[in-house]
Amino acid sequence: MKEDSPKDRKSESPKASRKYEASSLKSETEHSALGIPQAEIKELQTANSKLPTEQMEVHHHPEVEKKGFKEYILEGLMIFLAVMMGFFAESLREHISDNKREKEYIRSFAEDLKKDTAALHYSIKRLNRDITNCDSIIRLYATNKLAQKPDSLVLQMSFGAGHSVDVFFNDRTSSQLKGTGSMRLIRNKAIADSMLKYWNNQFRLQQMHDRFENIRMEQHKAGWRTFNWYAILYNIASTDKKRVPATKAIADKSQLTEFVNVCATLYNSGIGQYLPLLNDQLNLATTIIATINKQYPPENE
After folding, report:
1. pLDDT grade, residue 57 (50/70/90)?
2. Which of 11, 51, 76, 125 is found 20 to 30 A from 221 (Cα to Cα)?
3. Cα distance between residue 115 and residue 168, in whole Å
4. What share of the chain is helix, strand, coil (3-state, %, to 5)?
């Protein structure tokens, strides 16, 4: 215990100073009665005052067990396996999801092809009618028999030789595959190649359609100058039961040669180029549908 310095005792009040001196005197008297020298008492007090400080300054560090090289290798291997298992699980999940989407796209494409085949059959039917009428007019004109045929028949053949032949393809699935980059999901190479070939044929058919349409418009222009088509057009559109009787079919014989020449061009373009492309596209669509139904059968079957 720290003894009060004289300076500190001077600053105290006289009453407190007298109390301190009386207490010290009493303590010394008690220790003297016990026979303990004053010097030992002071040393004991000093030692006791240092004891807490010495105890506070002692620090005990926990002993860390050192790991061996094999333990580090084992821990690293465990971490590596955990990461690889997570990677394989994610890859498997993505693989299953991609397989499902692939089948959905392929089945959707097959449904589009079914609609395309119906449209192709209709287009082929109209083109064959144009080809047949052009062939009849050319043969009759070449043998000088065209003017001998009934006017109603000549009007029907001449007007029916230039019907439009449009082709409409359903692009629901193709636009999704191309626009979203999902073509990578089609991992069946045979079907993927068939899809690309089918789409390339669509482009060629569109180009062929435009050429055929230009020739057909030229044929119609020549036909307006050559034949009296007004009766046919009126009777087709009229709701009246009374029909306009067919008049003389050929209005201007001087224009007949030009009309037949354009018909021959249309015939050549139709039978030599347009029709083969349409048939090829129809056969390709039918083959793809059969392949898809075999490898990716509908779920309800």
Report:
1. low
2. 125
3. 9
4. 75, 0, 20
pTM of the model: 0.68
Q: Is residue 10 scored above 50 in pLDDT?
A: no
Q: Which two tokens stand for residue 17?
A: 């100073």
User: In this structure, what are the phi and psi dihedrals at residue 250, rounded to the nearest 5 degrees?
Assistant: -90, 115
233 contacts 110 by C-beta, under 8 angstroms: no
C-alpha 228/C-alpha 253 separation (Å) is 12
Does the structure show a pLDDT above 70 at 201? yes
The 8-class DSSP code of residue 63 comes to: P
Rounded Cα distance, 221 and 215, in Å: 10
What is the C-alpha separation between 109 and 185, in angstroms, rounded? 13
Query: In degrees rounded to 5, what are phi and psi of residue 5?
Result: -75, 160
Q: Residue 162: which of 68, 236, 263, 62 has the closest Cα?
A: 263
Q: Phi, psi (5° rounding) for residue 34?
A: -85, -10
Q: Please state the domain extents for the chain.
A: 97-295
| pLDDT tens track for 18-30 | 555 555 545 555 5
> Rounded CA gap, 253 and 144, in Å?
12
Q: What is the 3-state secondary structure (H, E, C) of 225-257?
A: HHECCHHHHHHHHCCCCCCCCCCCCECCHHHHH
If you write DSSP's letter for every residue of 10-34 in order, what string do you get? HHS-HHHHHHHHHHHHHHHHHHHHT
Please list the residues that pair with 33 across neighbouring strands.
none
- CA atoms lying within 13 Å on the CB side of residue 232: 17
Question: Which residue has tokens 């007949």?
Answer: 256
Q: Classify the C-alpha dihedral 285-165-202-262 as positive or negative.
A: positive
For 129-174, what is each residue's pLDDT tens digit? 999 999 999 999 999 999 889 998 999 999 999 999 998 999 999 9
